[in-house]
Sequence to fold (495 residues):
Amino acid sequence: MISRTRPSGRRLRTLSASGTAAIVAVLVVSLLPSLAQAAEATLGAAATQSGRYFGAAVAANKLGDGAYTTILNREFNSVTPENEMKIDATEPQQNNFTFGNADRIVNHALSRGWKVRGHTLAWHSQQPGWMQNMSGTALRNAMLNHVTRVATYYRGKIDSWDVVNEAFADGNSGARRDSNLQRTGNDWIEAAFRAARSADPGAKLCYNDYNTDNWTWAKTQAVYNMVRDFKQRGVPIDCVGFQSHFNANSPYNSNYRTTLSSFAALGVDVQITELDIEGSGTTQANTYRSVVNDCLAVPRCNGITVWGIRDSDSWRSGGTPLLFDNSGNKKQAYTATLDALNSAGPGPTPTPTTPGPTPTATPTGSPGSASEIVGAQSGRCIDVPNASRSNGTRVQLYDCNKQSNQSWTYTTNRQLRVYGDMCLDAAGSGNGAAVQIYSCHNQTNQQWNVNSNGTITGVQSGRCLDVWSTSNGAQVQLYDCNGQANQQFRLAPLA
Ligand code: G3I
Fold:
């Protein structure tokens, strides 16, 4: 990967030829390490290199704070409303829904092309008074109604929902947390997930919790067992959120990577959802670096969200746990985080934990020859809008025109290349993940199986290329393979 950030140029005065050559040689040697790696200048851009996002918890009432939004807009490409989507905020009176503050955050993000994490649909805490006083069937129904109404309102806008938050007890019991929701029956969590799936089939559905970062802790194992059970029984769960609030009582442990990879091996994505690390200086910076490296080592770790922007924005401001100080200056922890994200670049990552399906046929046309990819239902071709060559441009259906932005070459290592050096790339692995173009690298989110049944499946995700409609401009996404015509494509060789 070549650095996209150029070293600052300095004008050389007149020198002898040999002197110039010597300086050039020294410069080349000293720049080699940085040229060998990507060097993006912001957290979001650095994370995007490996197909991940970097987000922040955002408070609606701070969007008018210029210092705050300057950092937000510069550094991040995903948001989580810190409090504005919680039950007390969105349904203050039963069946009276208010989305104003949440909408301000969602619109701020979507208008800039960022992701939104929805937080949270079902939780024992921050319930409005009317819900706190409910129990039994009435509460169960009210909870399901809340999940359905809120997820429906935001349908199509949310990348990942924290469907259920913090449902397990701390300590060594491995038990569910006692709460009014738990007392409606042990199946309340799966009921919430099913309601969320029905309401917004395109969003990734996450279980989110804290003190689940250390692989040896009973709470971690209890959540792991629940997720395994859900996957075995077909309960619709796509991801697990690790809040990752680290401090002296809940310190970072090097087995965190094992935690992330073990959950991913169950067939779910993992996300770091509320990261903050109390401390300062080098110690804090090193822990941030370790957390980032652990995420980067797990292909299904989609992204990282820090729980606030400046230390003064934190729910634990006294612990100075964030990446920017009270004045908005970058801390040592920021530099360590950025460097870690950049050091990954788009380089190889470990083999995915859930293998994709084996290709059942080679595509029409021989490897190396260009084809158009034609949708069986639409008759339209997979097209790069406006012949863009920018990383992250989402592909669409469009009338076939045999031009270079519809000309794809299936390579022997299962990439679908356009313009020679750009690849069809999955921006995530869950249902609804965007399919885009990105500079080719060797990761499995750029590898595709072209199957004899007409589907094209992502090696990383196992999911099918899928389109929402047959129209010009219909976006291409990943979705669970369902045997329907909107997931059928053929590679038609271009003469
Ligand atoms: O806005 C009101 C203000 O008008 C009022 O005067 C003041 C009086 O206490 O309260 C203000 O609301 C507070 C709100 O944060 C906004 O600052 C609430 O009291 C306070 O309870 C609330 O705390 C939030 C906390 O969740 C509630 O559980 C934190 O901001 C928020 O960061 C925190 O986030 C949670 C995640 O949702 C779940 N994981 C843990 C994480 C940290 O606790």
Summary: The chain has twelve helices and 22 strands. The CA atoms of residues 254 and 290 lie 8 Å apart.
